[in-house]
Write a structure and sequence with these properties.
The structure holds two protein chains of two kinds. Chain A has two domains: 7-61, no CATH class; 105-303, Sandwich (Jelly Rolls). Chain A contains five helices and 14 strands. Chain A has helices spanning 7-16, 21-33, 35-56, 224-227, 231-235, and strands spanning 85-87, 96-98, 105-110, 125-126, 135-138, 140-143, 157-160, 174-181, 195-204, 212-220, 241-248, 257-264, 271-279, 291-303. In chain A, strands 3, 6, 7, 9, 12 and 14 form a six-stranded antiparallel β-sheet that branches. Chain A has a six-stranded mixed β-sheet with strand order 4-5-8-13-10-11, with no helix packed on it. A two-stranded antiparallel sheet of chain A has the order 1-2. In chain A, helix 1 packs across helix 2 and helix 2 packs across helix 3. Chain B folds into two domains: 3-101, no CATH class; 105-176, Arc Repressor Mutant, subunit A (Orthogonal Bundle). Chain B is built from eight helices and no strands. The chains are: A alpha+beta, B mainly alpha. At the A-B interface, helix 1, helix 2, helix 3, helix 5 and strand 11 of A face helix 1, helix 2, helix 3, helix 4 and helix 5 of B.
Chain lengths: 308, 177
């Protein structure tokens, strides 16, 4: 292994989210043409993945203590956590994850701008809003009851348009965005174990096949105006805390279905970006359905003593 | 859950947990970040469980699971294509083959990692432990350490290269003995 090979630097830049389009194209060309480099790249990613697994199982020293002796961690594969796996098979969504015990959790609702999507005159931003207090959309529209679908609450809902799977279409997911400003939260609410719970209700016009929905939450440590600049490149960097979950409805289940997910909020978070989406069926021969979104709720979950 | 369901559940867990790390590195090499890997792995686990056939032996499960992981990574890439650069299908296929061909040696290198971590100088070990902890931002960590983010990224990169070299040497020594 020749670590002086300049392509190692491109691997690093790719891994750290610092590579330009040209550098990523160069990386791709090397992966395609050089089997030895390809193997090296896989080994690098193997080690990177393993280090992430090891660190999860270890107590973290304070940065200021980095130069002092500390207890070291040992290799502990995730197999050890097998007992914590939960399969939720009885509801409309399937959950697979690692469970942590939380005792005495309190829930505090956060203010989502027009959570029930009731103001049809509001300006809907094209894509992610640049500031808190408005909705953003990709291929969506606010509508009253239509085609036999009634809003879950109030008189309006968001229609997520169908996007057929065609090779010329790059983005197949219709989305809605909301940005929350967390700076007004009391400092006591943001502890090391604070989580945010996001729930949203979806409805499909075609219930013969399963529908797939997406909820994603991203915490950033900048104020909304700064956080939403170059947002997508920030989201893909390893430092940003982000959680995304996809939910599948059960075929034949008509009506509104509510899904939720949680994200651990790092202390110092100032902005929470939320993304809600409807994904068309994998099988391109199946008709893409129109979906609706309503009643978005966001709550802060924290230990009993930390919330005001 | 009936006894039959529980038995099927246990059988799935045994097969899945035995393969999880290999699947994870496979997915990691096809995507760009830990977040993407985590999201796709979650979906892979759901699909594997939902479509699990208890009559499969471990070899058949392995083949099937890698196929599912590849499809889920492809699906993810297609859905997110607007967000950032993604590899073309040819490279996707070549990386799949590479991970499958080297799955045994990759696993051996992961096992050798513990030995190599303990050979690192104490400050480097603790830096890795801190930088890889969930939720840690390199920018913040760099500020706390009085360094630039780029310098920290490069230091971590050099440590990874050192560890890669070390795991190779550990495995070569084991083969000789």
């Amino acid at each position: 292994m020749n670590t002086n090979d300049p392509r190692f630097e491109i691997i690093r830049q790719s891994r750290d989210g610092n590579a330009s389009s040209e550098e990523l194209a160069q990386l791709e060309a090397s992966l395609r043409e050089d089997p030895d480099f390809r193997e090296t790249y896989v080994r690098y990613m193997n080690l990177d993945m393993a280090l992430g697994t090891v660190a999860k199982a270890a107590p973290r020293p304070a940065p200021t203590a980095l130069r002092q002796p500390a207890r070291w961690f040992t290799w502990r594969p995730l197999t050890a956590a097998a007992a914590g796996i939960v399969f939720g098979m009885l509801c409309t969504s399937v959950v697979f994850g690692y469970v942590t015990q939380r005792s005495a959790v309190r829930k505090m609702p956060l203010s989502v701008y027009d959570a029930g999507l009731e103001d049809p005159k509001q300006t809907l931003n094209d894509g992610l809003p640049s500031q808190a207090g408005q909705w953003g959309i990709d291929n969506a529209k606010m509508v009253p009851a239509e085609g036999g679908i009634t809003p879950l609450a109030g008189n309006h809902m968001l229609r997520l348009e169908q996007i057929p799977r065609e090779s010329t279409v790059r983005n197949h997911t219709s989305r809605a965005y909301q940005v929350l400003d967390l700076r007004s939260l009391p400092a006591s609410a943001m502890t090391n174990d604070t989580e945010v719970e996001v729930s949203a209700s979806f409805c499909a016009t075609n219930n013969d096949t399963s529908s797939r929905y997406l909820i994603r939450a991203i915490a950033l440590d900048e104020a909304p105006v700064q956080a939403t600049k170059n947002f997508w490149s920030k989201v893909e960097s390893d430092g940003v805390v982000s959680e995304s979950q996809r939910f599948d409805s059960v075929p034949g289940s008509a009506g509104w279905q509510t899904f939720s997910m949680t994200l651990r909020l790092p202390p110092g978070s100032k902005t929470l970006a939320l993304i809600f989406g409807a994904v068309p069926p994998e099988d391109a021969s199946l008709p893409a359905s129109v979906h609706y979104l309503d009643e978005v709720q966001v709550s802060l979950l924290s230990s009993e003593t930390s919330l005001p | 859950m009936t006894d039959s369901d529980r038995e099927q559940h246990d059988q799935f867990l045994r097969l899945f947990m035995g393969l999880e790390e290999s699947l994870r590195v496979f997915v990691r090499s096809l995507l760009f970040t830990h977040d993407e890997e985590r999201e796709v792995m979650q979906e892979v686990a759901v699909v594997l469980w939902r479509k699990f056939d208890p009559s499969m032996d471990s070899e058949a499960f392995c083949r099937w699971a890698f196929g599912v992981a590849r499809i889920e990574a492809l699906t993810f890439r297609r859905d997110r294509a607007r967000d950032r650069h993604t590899f073309g299908d040819e490279v996707f296929e070549l990386l799949s083959q590479t991970v499958l061909e080297h799955s045994d040696s990759l696993e051996a290198e992961r096992r050798a990692l513990d030995t190599c971590l303990q050979k690192l100088p104490e400050d480097q070990r603790q830096l890795v432990q801190t930088a890889y902890a969930p939720g840690v931002k390199i920018d913040h960590l760099a500020t706390q350490l009085g360094r630039t983010a780029m310098a920290l990224y490069k230091t971590l990169h050099r440590i990874r290269l050192t560890l890669m070299d070390c795991t190779r040497r550990v495995l070569a020594t084991e083969e000789l003995t």
